[in-house]
Amino acid sequence: MAQKLIPTDVTVMKLRHLSLSTRMALLSLASVLCAVLVGVLVLALRVADLVEEEMGLRALAIARTLAQLEVVQKSVSLPQGAEAIQPIAEKTRLATAAEYVVVTDMEGTRYSHPVAERIGKHVTDADFSRALSGEEFVSRAAGVLGPSVRAFVPLKTEEGTRQVGVVVVGILTPTWTSLLRALQVEIYPAIGVGLVIGLLGAAFLAARVKRAMFSMEPEEIARLLEERTAIFQAMGEGIIAIDREGRITVINAAARRIIGCTEEVVGKPIEEVLPDSHLRRVLSTGQPEWNQERVLQGTVVISNRVPVRAGEAIVGAVSTFREKSEVHRLAEELTGVKALVEALRVQNHEHQNKLHTIAGLIQLGRHKEALDYIYEVTEEHQKVVSLLTRQIGEPCIAGLLAGKYGRAKELGVHLEIDPATNLKALPVMLDRGALTVILGNLLENALEAVRDGPPEKRKVYFGMFDGPEGLTITVRDKGPGILAPQRELVFRPGYTTKGSERGLGLHLVHRSVATAGGTITITSNEEWPTVITVTVPRARPGRKSGGAAVHYHGTHYGAHH
Question: What is the DSSP letter of 137?
Fold first, then answer.
């Protein structure tokens, strides 16, 4: 059988379904109500103490006044003394609203009392012995009519040298409950005003909190946090976030794997995990950094770093990074397809032109010239295709070179591919995507450099040689060359002499070669005004990649970029 919920459990479940603003309002009302009630109670107790103290002083003054009366002093111890003392005591009691006024001798025999039957009887109160010893004091007592204070004053004669009795005056004191009843007219409005103020304050605070939490309930925030945490951990990209002091606040599993972190690092300074981290720079400048290459624990990664803002203030920074090899593996198919599509497009355009030429020769009756042209075209095409398929082990690279060869034909440029060109295997730090970037940009720059020149200058040489030490790529052109001042600038992002939206090609080449630990050499001679040689080592370089070494040699002829 299902266990029945007790009322407390039902109340808790109902409260959990209330909105945050409602719960805050209820909590504020309860807090204000409790504060007001506690304040009223403390005030009532304090007022009761003050009233009791005042009543004690009043009773003490009455007792002292009676003790100074000569008739009272002389009548104590006389057989008929009560006849003289009782009228005086009763008149004093009625005039001062005291509960009782009692005069006794040293034996404790009463000479006055509100109840006449008790006159002549002995006092049995424990405090009476202190008064017989000459001590004047005030004490509390709880009687039938309620609590009271009693003043004990010694009754003395002969100029106060001999004690002959005791005067006791008792006055009823109000309790804190009676004070509350007396003050209820003032208390109830105060509680109402306090509750209204508490309700308004709770509504204002709830609205501010809701705005700060994007109008979400705490349960929604907790669920969103759990979902975000699960997403962070499931992402293939590494994520590291720091606060404004540079302490790590978030690190996911991918980041731990890439940087080789096995211990708990949340809360530690970022420099203890990544000594050369650039997140501090982003934190101070507030400028994002996109697609930055760097080496982490021997792994080349592509990193994005952005500041985290709360309004206008920078409260932290986040870095996302992924292994470059993974990025290229995901893009290899697309890169290869783009190269092949470009090659097919160029070849299709070229073949259309050739077919039009052949059709024209046939229509003109030049059958022998048409046949010779077909043999010439077929031989040239087969020669290039045979070279690339036989000596280039990467289909994507072979497709790229075939496409560039066809583009050169379109532009009227003679592209000479060295017969010794070969590629058996890629170097360790160079993947197909990076090599495609290097070859594509170097060849495209060379073709554009010579396309507008005279026919004898429209020549480009390409050679790629795979040796035991590494891969060497050489691109030469007969263009105007690169001036010395420009050689220091051509690899910078955005620098160009070709108009807007250009200037990234050689920068991408430089970055890819730098990541692979290679070098770029720019030379020139009388035959070839521009010679660019890229060398990439076969094995992993022993140093961290910070930039490709660029060398400049030779005489300078003109300028182009």
Answer: E
Mean pLDDT over the full length of the chain: 77
431: Cβ contacts below 8 Å, ≥ 6 apart? 324, 325, 328, 332
Q: What is the CATH number of domain 412-561?
A: 3.30.565.10
- What is each CA distance from 38 to 31, 132, 191, 328, in whole angstroms? 10, 43, 11, 71
Pairwise pLDDT comparison (330 vs 559), residue with the higher score:
330
Helix runs in 68-106, H state only:
70-75, 81-96
Specify the CATH number of the domain 68-175. 3.30.450.20
Residue from 476, 461, 462 nearest 529 by CA: 476
Strand partners, 168: 102, 152
pLDDT in the model for residue 363:
78
pLDDT tens-place string over residues 457-466:
899 999 999 9
State the Cα–Cα distance between residues 506 and 497, nearest whole angstrom. 12
Looking at residue 474, its pLDDT comes to 94
What DSSP line would sit under 161-196, residue for residue? TEEEEEEEEEEE---HHHHHHHTHHHHHHHHHHHHH
H or E segment at 508? helix 505-515
**pLDDT exceeds cutoff 80 at 163:** yes
When pLDDT is cut at 50, 70 and 90, the band that residue 560 belongs to is very low
Dihedral angle computed from the Cα positions of residues 99, 100, 101 and 102, in that order, rounded to the nearest 10 degrees: -150
What backbone torsions phi and psi does residue 165 show, to the nearest 5 degrees?
180, -165
- Distance CA(187)–CA(170), nearest Å, equals 30
Structure token pair of residue 377: 């075209």
Tell me whether strands 162-172 and 146-157 are parallel, antiparallel or unpaired: antiparallel
Radius of gyration of the chain (CA): 53
Categorise residue 393: left if φ over 0, alpha if ψ from -120 to 50, beta otherwise: alpha
CB-based contact 103:155 (threshold 8 Å)? yes
C-alpha 453: how far from its chain's center? 59
Cβ atoms 136, 123 nearer than 8 A: no
Q: Give the tokens for residue 557.
A: 């002829």
Please give the model's pTM, rounded to 2 decimal places. Answer: 0.42
Domain boundaries, the chain: 68-175, 237-326, 412-561
Report the interhelical angle of 505-515 vs 432-450 (nearest 10°). Answer: 150
Residue 286: which of 255, 317, 246, 320 has the closest Cα?
A: 317
Dihedrals phi, psi of 501, to nearest 5 degrees: 60, 30
What is the distance between the alpha carbons of residues 282 and 279, in angstroms, rounded to a whole number? 5
Q: How many CB atoms lie within 10 A of CB 429?
A: 24
d(Cα 181, Cα 43) in Å, to the nearest integer? 13
Q: CA-to-CA distance for 534 and 462, rounded, in angstroms?
A: 12
143/74 Cα distance (integer angstroms): 31
Answer yes or no: same fold for 68-175 and 412-561: no
Task: Give tens-digit pLDDT for 465-508.
Answer: 998 889 999 999 998 887 766 666 677 765 565 544 444 667 78
Fold of 237-326: Beta-Lactamase (3.30.450)
